[in-house]
Design brief:
Layout (H helix, E strand, L loop, with lengths): L1 H9 L1 H6 L1 H29 L5 H31 L3 H18 L1 H15 L8 E4 L2 E8 L3 E5 L5 E5 L6 E3 L5 E9 L5 H15 L10 E8 L4 E9 L4 H18 L21
Helix pairs in contact: 3-4, 5-6, 7-8
């Protein structure tokens, strides 16, 4: 180790003047700067408890832009050191190439512009529950070119931002959950409505339900039973939990009050076929 230090101290100037060494130092510095940027952004997101999805999205996109700038200047530095290409000449050539690519890569330009508008207009943010092209899931990541949507099964759909035409965002306002319950024609409708009203009154104490659920009444006479509707207002992203809890309570209430829920029956008829002599 001592011999290496002595050799480096004696030949430091020659080593640092080596073009490949300078290029390696530039690459290492760029790598460390990008890692530092990623760490700062991730640490800021994890520390902030009140950060909205839009701010988190802007943080991530800003981090990617910084990394792109770092790598761009690293390439300029390497070209200058190794190939003796001046940055001004390289930037001018880059501008010409960009114009040429612009005509052949219009879809990429469209995706980038659409991505900027999505973020600027706050159409959706990371963590929002959305429906895009019939695909339901949460926004996993947004970049300037693509949007990643992840469903409950872990499948990730990658959509170019220029192809996002219609989006249903389920995470912006309080949710109204509509629950339709069927009872048999033999049961008393007024009694069923009263039982459901009692369930709604008890459900008002659930913390994620924002107001007392309502029973509008009968909405349809189905071929198998009478359909009664319940409307429940709940917090954002709690609609599925609300629906499950309400159905559980309704089932227990119907069982305790001898109210039957219609379902399909299968009747087996064993018919003996006689044979004549």
């Amino acid at each position: 180790m001592r011999d290496f230090l002595e050799f480096f101290s004696e030949n430091a100037a020659d080593i640092l003047e080596n073009k490949l060494v300078q290029a390696a130092i530039t690459v290492l510095a760029a790598f460390l700067l990008t890692r530092l940027t990623k760490f700062i952004i991730r640490h800021s997101i994890e520390r902030s408890e009140n950060m909205t999805g839009r701010i988190e999205t802007l943080f991530r996109v800003f981090g990617k832009c910084i990394n792109a700038v770092i790598y761009f200047f690293a390439v300029l530095q390497i070209c200058q050191v190794v190939f003796n290409i001046q940055p001004t000449s390289l930037i001018a050539a880059t501008g010409v190439v960009s114009v040429a690519l612009g005509f052949g890569a219009q879809s990429i330009v469209k995706d980038v512009i659409s991505g900027f508008l999505i973020i600027f207009e706050n159409q959706f943010s990371v963590g929002d529950l959305v429906t895009i092209d019939g695909f339901n899931g949460r926004i996993h990541e947004i970049t300037l070119r693509t949007t990643l949507v992840k469903n409950i099964y872990g499948d990730i759909l990658t959509i170019p931002n220029g192809s996002v035409s219609k989006v249903i965002n389920h995470s912006r306002e309080m949710r109204c959950v509509l629950i339709d319950v069927s009872i048999s024609y033999e049961d008393d409708i007024d009694n069923a409505v009263e039982v459901l009203s009692e369930v709604c009154a008890e459900a008002e104490d659930i913390d994620y339900i924002t107001e007392r659920p309502k029973v509008p009444g009968v909405i349809k006479l189905d071929e198998s039973g009478v359909v009664i509707r319940i409307s429940v207002m709940c917090e954002i992203d709690r609609q599925f939990e609300t629906e499950r809890e309400m159905l559980r309570r309704i089932k227990y209430a119907f069982d305790n009050n001898n109210i039957s829920i219609p379902y399909n029956h299968i009747m087996l008829v064993n018919k003996e076929i006689g044979t004549s002599d």
